[in-house]
Structure formats: structure tokens, C-alpha cells
Amino acid sequence: MKGRLMGVDYGLKRVGIALSDELRITVTPLQTIQRRGDKQVCREIRELVAVHGVVEIVVGLPLESDGQDSGLTKTVDDFVTRLRNYVSIPVTLFDERFTSIEAEELLRESGRYTKKDKDLLDAAAAAVILRWYLEG
């Protein structure tokens, strides 16, 4: 399959965004959206989808380590329902357990991370979500 995918790490304050290449070989953190509300986030994602030619969006689903719903699971479900009304491409939920931990480890190894750099961590977590989805 071909076509660029977008990874989304949804949070109450920030939303991390990552993109794959057209052949879905590499994944790169793109940016972090400062969340002022779901409508604003959906509009910004819709614009990024158009600019980058995205054919599918993969949104991380926050679950507890045992696979049960977390406090954010319903919030993310509601966001995905709203996002599907803004875009005409598939929006897929994908288990995001441990992605933030892996993203932080990768950033530390690269020497590019400090605790203050939450934006970079959110975009890197979106990249991990997307990479795991593609490897899945």
C-alpha cells in the first residue's frame, strides 16, 4: 500500500502529530498542536491532511497497562467521533500503551530531550504510535 499516514497522540493540553513517508517506511514527528478545544484540533488536523496528502489517521487509544479503559479512553473516543466528521479518510484507533515511555527513551538516547520539552515528547509519541501501527 502507498500513501502517507498520520499518527496522533491526543492529550488534554497538547496533541502530537507525526507523518509517515509515502511508502510507509519511515515515520517522523511533525509538530504539536496546542489544544484549545476539539474543534480547533480537528480543523488543524484537516488542514495538515490536505497539505501532506494523508490517506489515513491513526489515533493512539489510551489504555491501562492491563488493557482496561483509562480515564482518557472515552475522551479520545469522543474526539475520534468528532474528527471523523472533519475528514473524509479513515481514522483508526490504535493501542498506545507504553508509547510515551518509548518516545522519552528514544529522545534521551538522541540527547534531544529535557523534561521541559513536552511538545517534542508528544510529537515523538505520535511517531511511536504510527511506527508500531505500521509494524503491527
Written account of the structure:
The protein has 136 residues and is of the alpha/beta class. The chain has a single domain, classed as YqgF/RNase H-like domain (Nucleotidyltransferase, domain 5, 2-Layer Sandwich), CATH 3.30.420.140. It is 42% helix and 26% strand. It is built from four helices and five strands. The chain has helices at residues 38-52, 73-84, 99-110, 118-135; strands spanning 4-10, 14-20, 27-34, 54-61, 91-95. Strands 3-2-1-4-5 form a five-stranded mixed beta sheet, sandwiched between helices. Strand 4 (54-61), helix 2 and strand 5 (91-95) form a beta-alpha-beta unit. Helix 3 packs across helix 4. The chain starts with a strand and ends with a helix.
Task: Describe the structure concisely.
With 136 residues, the chain is α/β, with parallel strands linked by helices.
What is the topology?
Layout: E1 4-10, E2 14-20, E3 27-34, H1 38-52, E4 54-61, H2 73-84, E5 91-95, H3 99-110, H4 118-135
Parallel strand pairs: 1-4, 4-5
Antiparallel strand pairs: 1-2, 2-3
Helix pairs in contact: 3-4
Overview features:
5 strands; 5-stranded mixed sheet; 4 helices; Nucleotidyltransferase, domain 5; globular; 136 residues; alpha/beta
Task: Please give the alpha-carbon distance between the first and last residues.
Answer: 14 Å
- Stretches where pLDDT is under 50 for at least 5 consecutive residues are none
Number of strands: 5
Helix coverage percent = 40-55%
Q: How many domains comprise the coordinates?
A: 1
The CATH topology is what? Nucleotidyltransferase, domain 5
Major sheet: arrangement of strands: 3-2-1-4-5
Choose one word for the global shape.
globular
Q: What's the SSE pattern?
A: EEEHEHEHH
Radius of gyration: 14 Å
Strand content: 25-35%
User: Mean of residue pLDDT?
Assistant: 90
